[in-house]
Amino acid sequence: MYTFHTDPGHGWLEVGLQELHDMGIYDQITAYSYIKDDRAYLEEDCDAGTFIRALKAREQDFQYNTVNTNNDHWIRRCRRFPQAA
User: Is residue 85 assigned to a domain?
Assistant: First the structure.
């Protein structure tokens, strides 16, 4: 089960960094997503879709719960995802 975080302006899907590596899509994630510790917060417009498509290609189930805040989310203060070289 994954967690989808939202604030009034945007949303991010929380996934493990290792999972992105294991799926071979780490280098496809944009700088619009964020990193904190061993977690990635994939922005909803592009990167979350990249991840979900990769799951479906592997015929893996995708379930999530949503966590909302009415203020700017703490994710916005995390480090941006490094862009692929």
Answer: no
- Identify whether 26 is part of a domain: yes
Q: Confirm whether pTM is higher than 0.90.
A: yes
CA distance 29 to 6: 19
Q: How are the residues of the chain apportioned to helix, strand and coil, as percentages rounded to the nearest 5? A: 30, 30, 40
Q: How many CA atoms lie within 13 A of 19 on its CB side?
A: 18
Question: Could you tell me if residue 56 is inside a domain?
Answer: yes
pLDDT digits (tens, 9 = 90+) for 5-28: 999 999 999 999 999 999 999 999
Does residue 49 sit in helix, strand or coil? helix
AA identity, residue 50: T
Q: Residue 53 is part of which domain span?
A: 2-80
pLDDT, tens digit, 9 for 90 and up, residues 63-72: 999 999 999 9
Residue 82 pLDDT = 87
What does the radius of gyration of the chain's CA atoms come to, in whole angstroms? 12
